[in-house]
Amino acid sequence: MAFFEEYCHNRCGFLGCKLEQGSAVELSSEPVEFPNHQNAVASEHKLAGYLLSSLHAYGRHKAAFFTRFGFSADAWETLARALLEHASQNEVVRIEDSPFGNSYIINGQLLTPDTRNPRVCAIWFIQTGEEVPDLVTAYPLEQTGGA
């Protein structure tokens, strides 16, 4: 998965970006389910070493967000389960094609240990010729209403 992250980082300098090149698939009003979500992988390296790492150059700001809701690098599996549930319970809002495969962007409420359940965007990637989705990143969405 490192090749995709390197590609994305080199293109726009931020791992959670929307790629400048490639094509985005416009979704119809019909719900789009995330393919093979039951096989999705949110690895320890991605979670403890990036999204929950206060030392990671790009992940430290995301770590500050996720730890405010009760997640921790020591218990990275809790965030893994929450993101896998997020992927299975929310619809795909955008699909982006790249030379390496497809990115699936999923927005929705993330169930958190402290039960405040913020809205987050999670980006998953399925490499061309593969069927297993890998987590690329997750980040907070702007809250609507009184949240």
Can you put this structure into words, describing what you see?
Helix content is 29%, strand content 24%. Mean pLDDT is 85; it is low at 1-21. Strands 1-2-3-4-5 form a five-stranded antiparallel beta sheet. It has one domain. The protein has helices at 2-12, 44-51, 60-68, 76-89, and strands at residues 23-25, 92-98, 101-109, 119-127, 134-140. It is built from four helices and five strands; from the N terminus they run H-E-H-H-H-E-E-E-E.
**Amount of helix:** 25-40%
Q: For the record, give the distance between the C-alpha atoms at the N and C termini, rounded to a whole number.
A: 34 Å
Mean pLDDT: 85
Strand content range? 15-25%
Q: What's the total number of strands?
A: 5
Spatial strand sequence of the major β-sheet: 1-2-3-4-5
Radius of gyration: 15 Å
- The total tally of domains equals 1
| Main sheet summary | 5 strands, antiparallel
Structural class: alpha+beta
Shape field: globular
**H and E string:** HEHHHEEEE
Low-confidence stretches: 1-21
State the helix count: 4
